[in-house]
From TrEMBL:
It comes from the Bacteria. One of its GO terms (molecular function) is acyltransferase activity, transferring groups other than amino-acyl groups. Signal peptide: none annotated. This is N-acetyltransferase domain-containing protein. InterPro entries: Acyl_CoA_acyltransferase (IPR016181), GNAT_dom (IPR000182), N-acetyltransferase (IPR051531). Pfam families: Acetyltransf_3. Residues 10-171 form the N-acetyltransferase domain.
Amino acid sequence: MTEVFATERLVLRELEDADANFIHQLYTGSDFRRAIGDRGISSLADAADYLKKVLQNSYREHGFGLWLMEFEGQGVGVCGLVKRDYLPVPDLGFALVPEAYGQGFAREAAAACLSYARAELGLPELLAIASMDNEASHKLLQAVGFKPNGMIIEPRSKESLCCFRWTARWTEEGA
């Protein structure tokens, strides 16, 4: 297990091959597909393939990616940084299994990801995108410091998405 960082309640770690069941559960959920989109996962084999080719490959290619959020040893969602071809800088992404809604996990993980992006990766800014009707994500993004930044058209789906921008705050010591 490659732990990336921990918060008061969560461990965020790199996704492993053994997490294919969790990815299948999360990515095939109706809430995920409605709010985030269909990633072409319909079977456990699809989830394992996506895990290797997309999620794990991001760690090697970019040094970051979506990390598994664990609470008391159980996966509750993913949160992390995604490099998308159509965005100029990485974006913050997150998703929870329905059983984890309303417990503050996404906000806690998102805030920790921003600290990690600034302190460990030296990223001066991030973007985040969300469906126009995903008010919960809009509220969360603004609560952790993102500001509305117009709209963007997702090239594959042609969906209009709300865009948010976060700019790192640096102290004189550089932290």
